[in-house]
Amino acid sequence: MSVVTITSQLGSGGHEIARKLANLMDYDLITKGLIRNVFRTSLLPEDQLAAIDAARPSAIEQYLLEEIRALPETHRPDLPDDMAAALLVGTSAPVSEADPDASFEEEILDEVRYQRMTDFLIGRIADRNRAVVLGRGGRPILQSRENVFHVLVVCPFKIRVERIMAKELCEEEVARERVRLSDQREERIFRDWFQTGFTDPTNYDLTVNTAHLTPRDAVSVISQALVSSLKRRR
What we know:
Elements: E1 3-8, H1 14-25, E2 28-30, H2 32-42, H3 46-54, H4 59-69, H5 81-88, H6 104-108, H7 111-128, E3 131-134, H8 138-141, E4 148-154, H9 157-168, H10 172-194, E5 206-209, H11 215-233
Parallel strand pairs: 1-3, 1-4, 2-3, 4-5
């Protein structure tokens, strides 16, 4: 029983690796989108929650919703009324033109509220075990947990630019700027929020360079290292 966190550079293939690893291990995949949807649903009035329950959310979504509902009202993660209203109607603040890859928490939430919400939900996920947590929050939030295996997925800048060009059919300069801004943003947030470096390999149990690895190869490396780690920790 364990949790795997995957922190990745833009264009390194981290999302596909996380998805394939979760499928292989039969683990829940926890993404930024899932956290956002759970949080949005938790803001709904009680009389609207029945409709959400009838829509049959996934087991992990249902678990997290129940954990939020079990909190005293004064301890529940909250948002200012105007931001909560935006979430409930499925809208968000516009993405900065200077940073088209701006993440959800920077579009909608101030850092304190986002961190509070993320800390709570990811902590509950770790309590449940059997999850792959994709995104920057997993590693620092769960760094003191013994049942967690932390993975960093990296790739050289030039190759990541080429991958973004191929995926999004954009010009090289556009792809270069996206990757550059993403790297700068992740480094800044890690320094400001967690007082550590984004790509410092000493913060992780395993660093995987996907320059010459397919997602399937990377998953094989991670799964073998995870099994070995679990055996040593017993």
